[in-house]
Design goal:
The chain has a single domain (about 15-95), classed as 2-Layer Sandwich (30s Ribosomal Protein S19, Chain A), CATH 3.30.860. About 20% of the residues lie in helices and about 15% in strands. It is of the alpha+beta class and about 100 residues long. It is built from two helices and three strands, in the order H-E-E-E-H.
């Protein structure tokens, strides 16, 4: 569900201040604002977005405009399917 067009996109004020203070090549901007929309002014910047455990580096490109920062920082880690049987099959194929 997208935000109302009359309200406009949500851009965190703290992220806006940090963008205004530094240049795109000065280093990453650390943020916890996963709900912040990516605006055209953010293109070229590198963000470190918190996923609940650690920070994941996200470099903003033109295709990302309109999406949220949290979309590029997954919160869940996929281990794999299978369990014991899958491990045995993998051992046979590698050995």
């Amino acid at each position: 569900m997208s935000r109302s067009s009359k309200k406009g996109p949500y851009i965190d004020p703290n992220v806006e201040k940090k963008i205004a203070r530094q240049k795109p090549d000065e280093g990453p901007i650390k943020t916890w604002a996963r709900a912040c929309s990516i605006s055209p002014e953010m293109v070229g910047y590198t963000f470190q977005v918190h996923n609940g455990k650690d920070f994941i580096t996200v470099r903003v490109s033109e295709e990302m405009v309109g999406h949220k920062l949290g979309e590029f920082s997954p919160t869940r880690k996929f281990v794999r399917h299978g369990g014991k049987i899958q491990k045995e099959i993998e051992k046979k194929t590698t050995a």
